[in-house]
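Quick one, tokens below:
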């Protein structure tokens, strides 16, 4: 085979065979196909697309490029959840102990935040002492013992995807639906779970801003995941405004703890129950989503999920006292209000602007090797539909030593206020299970 011929074939809109895709990925990963040829192939894929079979072949090729986590040592069905990225998205922090308390094994490898989206690992590391670097033996042992473990994804997982993504990032080919699908599903397959629920965000703070495109991505990922023998479902959820009220690492952790106590934001609690219901059905303990939801609600309200969270934190070296005293989490020294310029109803809270403000404050990173400040962030005082008076706080900025003024301008720009209240919109826009 020749790289030139494979590039030309896709450029001309022809279908690539599994062997051609596998050969191309293997040779590029090994350094035998130059980056400029891989970039040309990525652009051909971006322009011509890949069908479901080609996407499945690419997923399999990416998967074979590195280490696959063997979870056969974990008893029962192992579940995982993936979000395509959003602002204020702290669902794993609530969902993981909730599912574990329901008797489902949660074995999850997560990433750090990049750009305006937060990362689960950064949020967990805001807990004093919490250890996210686990050996495979430690990981499996904890899942068996506690029912849940969340660890940082290693560099050995799907190295071909990391190499391709670096090229996609500089060749304007990131937003290709088949490339996104193969990237996400290959990492989920490599992590070893039996059942996976996908939270595909759509809106201003999401990678996919259009619901139609998000649905296309969700369907493709479900198809590819099922072809690989996994149980997969997806929800398309709203990300036109942040999820919950807290955006930042420690403040999101505090909000997740509040949700586990039954005092969290309604949208966060609702999303966790919806995602969790799908996973309970996929894993087998519940016959349908309605039965699963009733069970999860009971576990949340009777405190079992909170107890499991406490046990999980202690198992990974964190200080479980944060459950009773969230003030033990890192605290920013300054709190600056952003005031409403007029009276009216909030009709928009642009999630991207809020996410960028939090990144500028130091809670996020532009490069993977940058440190983050766990204490800084933004706490919303008003969301879409809230009636506000002139001079009333719309949000509060939590700052330390940088970005305060620019962040304040971004947060103020994120809000749109009108005389009339907006139409309500659903948090879950669609479900994809076939």
């Amino acid at each position: 085979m020749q790289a030139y011929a494979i590039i030309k074939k896709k450029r001309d809109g022809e279908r690539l065979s599994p062997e051609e895709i596998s050969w191309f990925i293997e040779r590029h990963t090994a350094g035998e196909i130059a980056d400029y040829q891989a970039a040309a192939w990525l652009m051909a894929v971006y322009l011509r697309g890949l069908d479901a079979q080609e996407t499945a072949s690419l997923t399999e090729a990416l998967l074979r490029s590195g280490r696959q986590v063997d979870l056969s040592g974990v008893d029962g069905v192992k579940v995982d959840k993936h979000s395509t990225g959003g602002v204020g998205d702290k669902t794993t922090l609530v969902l993981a102990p909730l599912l574990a308390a329901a008797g489902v094994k949660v074995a999850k490898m997560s990433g750090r935040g990049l750009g305006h989206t937060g990362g689960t690992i950064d949020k967990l590391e805001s807990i004093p002492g919490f250890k996210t670097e686990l050996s495979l033996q430690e990981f499996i042992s904890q899942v068996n013992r506690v029912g849940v473990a969340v660890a940082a994804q290693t560099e050995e997982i799907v190295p071909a995807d990391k190499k391709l993504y670096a090229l996609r990032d500089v060749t304007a080919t990131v937003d290709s639906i088949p490339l996104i699908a193969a990237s996400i599903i290959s990492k989920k397959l490599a992590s070893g779970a039996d059942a996976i629920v996908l939270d595909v965000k759509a809106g201003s703070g999401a990678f996919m801003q259009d619901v139609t495109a998000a649905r296309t991505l969700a369907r493709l990922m479900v198809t590819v995941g099922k072809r690989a023998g996994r149980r997969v479902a997806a929800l398309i959820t709203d990300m036109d405004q942040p999820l919950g009220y807290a955006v930042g690492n420690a403040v999101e952790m505090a909000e997740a703890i509040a949700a586990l106590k039954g005092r969290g934001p309604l949208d966060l609690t609702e999303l966790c129950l919806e995602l969790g219901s799908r996973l309970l059905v996929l894993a087998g303990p519940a016959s349908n989503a309605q039965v699963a939801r009733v069970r999860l609600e009971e576990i949340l309200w009777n405190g079992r999920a909170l107890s499991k969270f406490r046990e999980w934190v202690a198992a990974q070296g964190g200080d479980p006292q944060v459950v009773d005293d969230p003030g033990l989490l890192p605290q920013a020294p300054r709190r600056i209000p952003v005031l409403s310029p007029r009276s009216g109803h909030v009709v928009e809270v642009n999630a991207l602007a809020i996410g960028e403000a939090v990144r500028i404050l130091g809670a996020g990173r532009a490069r993977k090797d940058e440190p983050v400040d766990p204490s800084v962030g933004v706490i919303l005082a008003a969301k879409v539909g809230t009636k506000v008076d002139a001079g009333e706080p719309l949000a509060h900025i939590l700052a330390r030593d940088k970005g305060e003024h620019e962040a304040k301008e971004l947060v103020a720009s994120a809000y749109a206020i009108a005389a009339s209240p907006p139409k309500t919109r659903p948090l879950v826009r669609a479900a994809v299970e076939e």
